[in-house]
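Justification of computing resources. Each target in the renewal requires a structure prediction run like the one illustrated here; the chain below, 770 residues long, is used simply to show the kind of job we budget for.
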Amino acid sequence: MTTDRLIARLCLSTVLSGAAGAAWAQDNAIYAEPSPNPLAQFVDLDEEPEEAAILFEADSVSREIDGGPITAEGDVSAFFGERYLRADRLIYDPATDIVYAEGDVAITDENLETAFAGRVEITGDLRDGIVENFSALLAENARLAADSAVREQGARTRLNRAVYTACNVCDDDGEAKTPTWRVKSLRVVRDEERKVVRFYHAFFEIKGVPVFYVPFLQGPDPSVERQSGFLAPSIGASSRLGFNLELPYYLAISNSQDATFSPKYTTNDGVLWQGEYRRRGKKSYHVLAGGVINYDNRVTDDAGRREDENGIPGVRWHYFGEGYKDVGDHWRLSYDLERISDREYLRQYDVEREGDLRQELDRSRTNRLRSNARAQWRRNGHNLTIDSYVFQGLRATDDASSTPYVLPSFDYRYDFSRRLAGGRTSINANTTFLLRTGGTDTQRFTASAYWERDIITRGGHRFNLFAEARADAYYFTDLDQGTEICSDSAADCAADFPGLTSDDTSTFETRLAPSIGLEWSYPLYNNIGGVGVFIEPRIQAVASPARQNPLEIINEDSQSIEFDYAGLFDYNKATGYDTFEDGQRINVGVAATAEFPFGLTVEGSAGQQFRLQTTNAFSPSSGLGDTQSDIVGSLNVKYKEIVGVENRFRIDNDTGSIQRAESMARFSLGPVLGNLTYVRLNEENIAAALVRREELTALGRIKITDHWSLGGAWRIDLEQDRTIRQDFIVGYQDECMTVALTYRRDRTEDDNLEPDNAFLVSFTLRSLVD
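Resulting C-alpha cells:
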C-alpha cells in the first residue's frame, strides 16, 4: 500500500477510533495477565512493569488450551489502562506478552492520538512494536503515514517511506484529496521525549508538486505547545530597504523563559539584529526587546574626519522593555522603556512593539516615546506610587533641551474603610518635579480630600453627592529659559509676572481649589410594542471658586483635552493637576437606546455644559470655557452582526459647525467584509491658530473562493488631498496554511525618510512553520 493511500485512509479516522465507552460484551470478555516480554529491545528495561490486566472485547473470543494464545475475531477491542486497540482479528499470547492484530487496526493512546495499520506486532501494554502500513492521527490535526513503523520505549517512532501533513486529506464528502502541503521523506523519526519530528531526505510539496528538497528537516512535535525552532519568515522588497528577509528563531530556554531572535537582512542598509527575551516568575515578569544596525552612511570632511550625514548616526538602534517584580507582600517595582537612536528609525525599518509588548496605542506611530520606572506600595487602603518619566520627541521641531524629565513624582492615596456621613472618603497627595536641561523647571505639591455618596430612592432616582477640598503649591525656576509664558529675557518675564523684578527668574504660587456638586439621573426602561426602550436623563451641578487658573501657574500636564459625552460629567475635566475647572456650571445630558425585535439597535446621547462665568482653564479649540459649551454626543446604529455605524461628534454651539467627528462603519455581507473610519477635528498649534485634520481610512476584504480573498486598505488626508498609505492584499487560508501577498505604498516622508513602495510575502504552515 502506498503512503498516499495510507494517508488517505485517515478519512475514516473518526470511525476507526471508535467509542471506547461502548457496552462491553461480558460473555465474550477474557482477562489475561501479562507475562515477561521477549520484545525487551523495544522497552526500557529499567522501567517497572505495569501491573494491569488486558480486557478483550470481540464478536468471538477463543482459546484452545489454558494459558495458550487468545484469538479474538470480529470488531475486536483490547483495553490496557488508558490505551486501547481495535482490529478485525487479534491474537494475544500471554506467554510472550505479544499482541498480533490485523485488519483495519487502530490504536489510541492516553493522549488520544490514534495510529492505524494493516498489521501490527506489539507488546501487551500496546506501547512498543512493529507496524505495517502505518498511519496516525496526531494532535493539532497532524497526520503521519508510512510503509512501516517501529515503536520504541513508548516515546520514539521510526518510520520508513513516510508522509507528514497537518492538512485535511479528505474533502467534505469523505473522499481522499491531495493536501495543501506535505512532506515526503525516506525516513522519519518522531521523538516524543525531545518533542521533535525529524525528516531525512525530505521533499516538500505544495498541492502534490515538489517544491524543494532538503537532506534534513526538523519540526516541533504536534503535541508540544512551545519548541525551539524557526518561525514563519517575512520576505519583502521596498524602495527604502531593497530586498529584505526576516527569519525569526524561537528559543524555549525553560518553562519560565524564552526568546525570539529576528535578524532582518536588507540589501540597502545591511542586517538589523533584533530580538526579544521573556521571563515570567511567580512574582516577576520581564520582556526586553531591542535591535541594532550598523548604518555607515557617513561622509568625510576636508580634514579627513568622518561625520554623520543628515544627522543619521552610524549605528542605529532601539530598545523596548516592560516588566515588574513584587518585593515582599506590598511592594511592586515596574518599568516600561522605549528609546530609539533617531526619529526616523522606527518607520525606516518598520519596527514596532510586538507580542507581549504590544499596546492598544502603538507609540511607534506617534510623536513621542516614553520611558517610565515605578515603585508602588499598597496596604490596607494605602496606595503610594513613585514615578519617573523620560520622554523622547520624534517631531522635527522637538527640542531635547526643553523636553521635561519627571524626576520623580510621588502620588499617595488613602481610601478610608469606614464611611463618613454615609459616603466614601479618600485623601490624596501628589508632588512632582519637572526638570529641563534648557527650560523652566517646575516643582508642584497638591493635596486633596474627596467625599462621595450615592443615594437611590425607591422610585429609581439616583443622586450622587460629592465634595473635594484641594490646595496646590508651585515653585518655578529658570523662567527666563521657558517657552510656556516668558520670553527670552528676565525683563520680559517680569512683565508677564508683575511680582517679579527684572533679575528674578523664579516664583512661588499657591491655589485653593475646592469643589462641591450634586448629580441626578433617572434610568427608565419599557417595552413598547416589542421594542425595548431605555432612556436616562442626567444633570450635574458643580460649584467651585472662579478665576482659579492664573497666568503665573504654568500648564504642564493638562495641555490637551478630548471633550465628548463620556467626559461631560467629570466634575473636573482637566487631564492633570496644573489646570483646574473653576466656576459654577451645570452639565446636562440624556442617553437613550432602542432595541427592535428584528435585530436593529439604535443608541444615542447628547449633552452640553452651561456656566455662570467663562474660564481660561481650557484652550478655545476644546469646546469648553464659554458660558455655553459645544454640544457633544454620539449616535450608533447596529443591525445584528451585519452592519454597524458608530458616531461621536462635537458641534459648535454658536455656528452649528462640526468641530470634531469620529465615525466608523463596519459591515459583513456574505463574502464581503469592510470597515470605514472618518475623523475630523480642529487642533490648536503653537501659534494658537486652529488647524483642521480630516482623514478617511477604508479597509475591505472580499472572499473570492473558500480559501482565496482580496483585500485592501486606504488612508487619505482629506484636508491636504493626499494619500497617506495604501495596501493591496491577496490572501490564501485553509486549515493548515496561510499566505499573504501585500503591495504597500507609504507616502509618509520626512527629512531623511522617502516615500516607500514595498512588496511583502508572509506565510505559515501549521505545526511545521508557525
